[in-house]
Amino acid sequence: MNKVTKTLRVNGEDHEVFFAPHKTLLEVLREDMDLTGTKHGCELGECGTCTVLMDGEPVLSCLVLGLESDGVEITTVEGLADENGPHPLQHQFAELGAAQCGYCTPGFLLTAKSLLDREPAPDRQRIRKELAGNLCRCTGYHQIYQAVEQAAEELRHG
Amino acid sequence: MDNDKRKPEYRYIGKAFRKVDGLSKATGATRYADDLSLPRMLHCKLLRSDVAYANIVSIDTREAEAMPGVKAVLTGEELPIAFGILPVSQDEHALCHDKVRFIGDPVAAVAAIDEDTAFEAIKRIRVEYEPLEPVFDPAVAMENRVPPLHDYGDDGNVHKRVSMEFGDVPAALEEADEVLEDIVFFEGNTHLPLEQHATLAWYEPDGRMTIWSSTQTPHYLHKAASKVLGLPPSRLRIVACPNGGGFGGKSDPFNHEIAVAKLAMKTNRPVKIALTREEVFYCHRGRHPVLMRSKMGVKKDGSITGMHFECLLDGGAYGSYGVASTYYTGALQTVTYKVPSYRFDGVRTFTNKPPCGPKRGHGTVQPRFALEIQMDKAAHKLGIDPAQLRLDNLQPANSVTANWLRIGTIGLRKCIEKVVEASGWNERYGKLPRGRGLGLACSSYITGAGLPIYWNSMPHTGVQLKLDRGGGVTAFCGATDIGQGSDTVLASCVAEVLGIDIMDVRVCVADTDLTPVDLGSYSSRVTLMMGNAAIQAAERAKELLTKAAAAKLEVPGSRLVFAENRVFDAEDPEKHMSFAQAIVFAEAKFGTIGTVGSYRPPSMPGRYRGAGVGPTPTYSYSACVLELQADEETGMIDVDKIWIAHDIGQAINRNLAIGQVEGGVYMGLGEALMEEMSYRPKRFGVHKVPSILEYKTPTTMEMPDVETFLIEDPDPEGPFGAKEVGQGPLLPVIPAVANGVFDALGVRVDRCPITPELVLKALASPDKRSGPTKYPDLRVTDEHTMRVKTPDEGGDGDAEGEWASKKTKMERAKS
Predict the structure, then answer these.
(1) N vs C: which end of chain A shows fewer Cβ within 10 Å?
(2) Closest approach of A121 to chain B, Cα-based (Å)
(3) What end-to-end distance do the CA atoms of chain A give, in Å?
């Protein structure tokens, strides 16, 4: 199949990308845009590892076609930090050991960002529920909850 | 926290601080193997067998080769040399060339301009198979009803048969007041790291090969790939990328790693492979399914008189670490509780399934499950509280066990006391309403294997330090960070000794061209071994700097203190210089500053054949209590809370240590309740669930609250007193679930995973138990049994009779 050219808005920038039309957003990000921060764990929508945000909502980028991704605002882990440094979630994940091998971390960060953007003070049970679609094999999740709670605190009080 | 008042005040050790690569991981900057790419890179896919057992008659690759975009097709003929992780089990090929032995065994490889083309090309390879009768049941495999999978091993499909007796076990069981006999089954399960294995290989024009891979053991891949590819090790470089989780699943040299390297040689282009999730299930090397029978004699007062432990391991299609797994299944029964006499009979068979190997807690998880359930049963039979029974039987510190394992410090008493107190055990055990229960179990694990995988007398790890005039220190070590935080441990040890900021230590790791050998991230060996080597290298650097600084400051070297990136006189801190200045003066005095440190474990008292598996510089200990709800109607188990105490000696980094404990608890809980590798023997041995959706693991919703206690009593063998924490805390969780189900419903589930079906089955059965009832004849005869006198019997660590002359190869190498 012939490749297509699309303008994708990723992390606040417009990118003209030339890719095979059957490629998933995950593949387009990693292979055609060199944004390898988004990881793959199954490519079947089972593990949550490849989570990115589309217009602020978490989606599994392995289940979305690149073609479906124009006209929306895509956020990947590379877009979380700004000129002031890492996002409070990133800072807290690093500080509290919430990233062990780090492979599931980008997906967790984006799911958590979406939650904190909507609800500034979620309780433990809410965080637990919201993150249920993201698997982590290293941490047992507790340090992840703590990082999300600390980041929420940091975001609320600056 | 059990703080010892004599402990020195550290800047980093024991504190909670950010790991050195924390922000790289939290920003997506860390480059895992599949994140790498090179110009002109080709993509590789493997054609895998779709039959469980067959001779390969022919492979027709013509149609695939003719496809546009296909640059090379590879079959086993071009890679005829066998390899394997253990010298005694060199039974794998990068691509099968005579037989396929399980569904998923790789047969051919394609390198093409993109992944889609490679996928398409493997479909066009025609393989003609001559089917053989597959065997999936290890008990059947022992009967030799099929052509054996391999032409080596102890006989037929018996890969390894071990039988050893320490002391007089029949007499010990005879003198017991009660003999418990239990048959228990532990189903196999897999690591499921979220990173799928990936490898990139590049054969440079000047004849040097580099392989970047998601491997926990770059040194062993270096050896295996060199052998199979026919490249001298000096021309072959292995770089282990940070692993996106390992848990033991990336510890073998893998067929795909070697196949892509060969394709890179064939095409003169870089070649990469990234496995699919389904393929990761076929790589496996996970927990062996083990059927066990344990006989334990106890006196009325609860003391153990002796134990006879038997097991049948289902090894899958290849050797992998299996010989070590077999020994490990019998090794550590003696290190928690006093077992005056002990016998172990173990058999590992080949079957036509993906190969089993080492998973977190290697070989010891299944017997620990059986043993801790048996301890619980013994307590109830004798009318002794299960926690008290364990406390009464504790193996003493600084002792030697019946099977000649030397024990150092033991923090198990404190571990038990801690979880008993925190959980309200004494007030609540046996008194909760029906359906609610508490379960307790304990365990122990090695802190690094006492012996290397291949016999040699060299260090198990090395650290080199390079000191820069600007004040930076680079630490080189072959150890691989698989998420456990070994990079941070390395930097912490160096920074602590030299009194510098941890971020002034740059780590350069896991690269066989650049870093001294470290045997790999397995056996919970890295913190202890690399840590000790790092301390030695840093102390040597400090000595040089001390001499130079002392001369310059005109104070005795013994008075100099290294702290806060400065070197100063303890008696007159005004006399000082920066750490960077000390390097400058040292470099002027001695020339370029570089130091090395290395570590080799102390020698072990056991001298009998097989004594190499089980010894370690020091054992870690764990105790766990958990609280659960077990539903009588549905059999569903909900674990609400877990209390775990781990004897870590000394935490290097509190955050990372607690993360390891909680991660181990999580993985143990998954194994206890849901994780299993299962196959369809009636459907040609196909894997039932090679996907994450169906291979169930705990999500946030199943993971209960965990209260973690680190028991810190520094062990003289460990760096700053540290013991392992990466594997041990998994072990007690699984039997604690079984024991908790008994407290809740009064039924015994002697099988793992403990599924709702098994709970219901136990409730419905007359003996209130579900689990295996039959145990096959392992065909162990007297001639198989090695007898070793225990230390109490005045033994010397060697076997008796005809076995005595069989000194270990290690000893021969030494002498």
Answers:
(1) C
(2) 19
(3) 50
